[in-house]
Design brief:
The chain has 222 residues and is α+β, with helices and mostly antiparallel strands. 54% of the residues lie in helices and 14% in strands.
């Protein structure tokens, strides 16, 4: 009986020591896991920051390129040459009658209608389509200063609409246009974070915009 009494405190002490050791080990493992999660979070933040900076670099590079300035002028002039009702005309040519299926409308270089707009589209579209494909962008837009979406690579229902008066005037694409249109420095970018976007069937979309400037004059928005 006495030996049993002596053994019980010893067993109890071992159990307490084991529980304390397990608790300390658990704390250590939890701390290590938290450190790993924090490191992963920091890496992802850095990756996102690098990704956004890459977009800004592309945006500024192309906004400062004389090709884009000329494209903005050419698309704006050829837009006027269409003589009105550009929304119906261009959506018919490049969406409705586009022989490529939905999701592949960007494959058409020239609608073949003989217009100066289609000539400009044939000239510039391969350049911006290649940028989109190479960099994994969803779309690339050029606006004139009146808010008309005179060019889009991907061609959704926002194509050829007006950002001040049209159906999508309350979207972040319109906000991105207006934010950039009031500036004359291509290094000054405007960013709108992910939100559902109607023309893309409410898929989350974010936008970054900058003015297209030539000799101090803002020609349009990219």
């Amino acid at each position: 009986m006495n030996s049993s009494i002596r053994i019980l405190p010893a067993v109890l002490a071992l159990l307490i020591e084991g529980a304390l050791s397990a608790y300390e080990a658990s704390k250590t493992l939890r701390h290590e896991a938290e450190n790993r999660l924090e490191a992963i979070d920091n890496i992802r933040r850095e990756q996102l920051s690098d990704y956004l900076q890459g977009i800004r670099d592309d945006l500024q590079l192309y906004a400062d390129n004389p090709l884009t300035a000329q494209a903005a002028k050419d698309f704006s002039a050829s837009w006027q040459d269409l003589g009105g009702n550009q929304l119906a005309t261009l959506q018919k040519l490049y969406i409705t009658e586009n022989p490529n299926p939905t999701g592949q409308k960007e494959k058409l270089d020239d609608a073949g209608d003989g217009s100066s707009y289609s000539a400009m589209h044939r000239k510039y579209h391969p350049v911006y389509r290649e940028l989109l494909q190479r960099r994994g962008y969803y779309d690339i837009f050029i606006f004139n200063m009146s808010g008309d979406l005179v060019y889009s690579v991907y061609k959704e229902l926002d194509y050829a609409t007006n950002m001040n008066t049209g159906e999508w005037k309350d979207t972040d694409l319109a906000n991105a246009f207006r934010a950039a249109a009031g500036k004359n420095d291509s290094t000054n970018h405007s960013f709108f974070d992910f939100r559902p976007y109607g023309p893309s069937y409410d898929a989350p979309a974010s936008f970054i915009s900058t003015p297209i400037v030539e000799n101090g004059e803002t020609l349009g928005v990219l």
